[in-house]
Amino acid sequence: MEECIFCKIAMGETSSEKVFESDDFIVIKDANPKVEGHLLVIPKKHYRDFLDMPPELYEKLLMTARETVDKIGVKEFNLIMNNGKFAGQVIDHAHLHILPRKEDDGFRI
Ligand code: 5GP
Ligand code: ZN
Questions:
Q1: Is residue 50's pLDDT more than 80?
Q2: Which is catalytic among the residues 38, 46, 93, 95?
Q3: In terms of C-beta density within 10 A (0-12 exposed, 13-18 middle, 19 or more buried), how is residue 94 classed?
Q4: Residue numbers of the domain that contains 79
């Protein structure tokens, strides 16, 4: 998967702003944030999307999201995962968006 940008980020071959890391995931700032503080929870191993991930990782994915929002002190946020082209997935390496929300921030799902 040497052409995958998130694999390169996970391996440290491409730079990113890492805000948290667990055994199986890294959490980085989105390069093109939709809201202030937009983060991505990315499995270190390559999986195409949610369905491609082993179900044993689902709890760890959400726990990593939980530990991240606790760490940064965010209380209001959306968790969004785009799976497949028609669902808006652009990067074909599974990732969970953390979108901190503020009043009148203009973001619409
Ligand atoms: P998707 O639409 O696939 O769910 O979201 C992909 C996200 O990855 C987008 O929000 C986009 O801004 C972000 N992104 C794409 N390339 C890079 C990159 O090289 N670095 C980082 N940090 N984010 C990226
Ligand atoms: Zn990948």
A1: yes
A2: 95
A3: buried
A4: 5-100
Radius of gyration of the chain (CA): 13
pLDDT digits (tens, 9 = 90+) for 1-14: 559 999 999 999 99
Tell me whether residue 109 is in a domain: no
Give the tens place of pLDDT for each residue, 75-109. 999 999 999 999 999 999 999 999 999 999 999 98
What pTM value is reported for the model?
0.97
Position 106 in a domain:
no
Distance 61 CA to ligand 1 centre (A): 18
47: in domain: yes
Catalytic, 93? Answer: no
What DSSP element (H or E) covers 98? Answer: strand 96-100
54 assigned to some structural domain: yes
State how many domains the chain has. Answer: 1
Q: Which atom of ligand 1 is nearest to the CA of 97?
A: 4
Q: Which CATH number fits the domain that encloses residue 14?
A: 3.30.428.10
Over residues 41-56, mean pLDDT: 98
